[in-house]
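Predict structure. Input: Lipoprotein, 328 residues.
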Amino acid sequence: MKHSAPSNIPRTRLRHRLPVLAIGALLLSGCVDMPHPFGDPGPEGRRLALNTPPPRMDVPTPPDSLLENEASALWARHIVHALVTESVPAVAQPVRKGDWWLRLSATMEGEQVIPHYVVMTPSGEARGHWDAPPVPAQVWAAGRDEVLATQASEAAPKISSVLTGIQAAMMQADPQSLKRRPAKVYFKGVRGAPGDGNVTLARAFAAAFPDAHDKIQEQAEGADYRVEGVVTLTDGPAGTTGHPMQHIEIVWHTLTAGGKEAGAATQLHDIPAHSLDGAWGDVAMAAASEAAGAVHQIITNYSGRAHKPLPPEAGGDGAKGGAAARQG
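Output follows.
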C-alpha cells in the first residue's frame, strides 16, 4: 500500500527516429515523508538499521496532565488515534518492559497550560520531546473531547517528526545502515518490451544507475533492493490523422530484500503503432536515465537515509533538552 502522495519526476522529450515519445515518470514511493520509525521493518530493515525501535509505542494515561482522570485517559486515547494515522502503531496502555513510550504531561505558565510530549526509551531515558502551543487554563481544565482531539491531531505530526529524527540518529550510528554505506541493488533486467527494448533498456539502466549512494551487484543474495522493469503495450486510439496508436507503459518496480514493494516509477505515453518494434536507440537511453533517478529517490525515501538525525538531549529530563521544540 502506498502511504504518500505521488511526486512527479520532470518530463523528458525522448526521440526515436521521427516519432516523439514523451514519458512522464510518476514516483509512487512507499514512505516518502516517513519510513514508519516504529513499524516493524522486516528482516531486511532490521539488518540495515540494527537499532530500530520495536514495533509498538505505549501511551499511558498521564498522571500530571492537569486534567481529571477520565479526561487524562481521553487525551491519551486521542494521541494514540492521531499517531496511528501517522503510521506509528501506538497503543493506549501502561508502559511495558522493553517498550518505547510517550510521556504526556502539562504545566501551568501564568493563565495558560503547556502540554508536553516526551519520547522515552525502554530504559526510561528521554530521547526527544515537543511542547504544544499554550492553551487557556480554563479551556484545558474542562477536558472537552473536541479540545483534546484537536491537541492530539496537531501534536501527532510533530511527534512523528521527532521519531524520524530518532531513527535517523540510530542509522547514523550504525555502520551497516544506508546512511553509512551505498545500497546494494540487484537489477533483474527488463521484460515485455518489443524490438530490442528488453536488452537496450536494461543496458542503459545498468549504465545510468550506479552513483555514490546506490550500487548494482550481479547476484540477488545480499542485495538491499531488487529492481525490475516491465513494459506493457496496448492498442490505443486511432490518432489525430487516423494513424493507429499504441499505449506504452514502463514500470520500474523497486522491492526490498524481503519482497515488499518500496515503490514504483511509471513511464507512459501514446506512440505511433509499432514505432518501437525495432531498435529503441536514444529512447532507451533517455527512459533509463529518467528511471534511474526515480529509483534512487524511491530507495532514499523508503530507507530514510536522507532524514536529519535528532541531536542528543541536553538536559537529561526530557523537559529542557536540546531536542525540544516549542510551537506558539
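The two ends are 35 Å apart (CA to CA).
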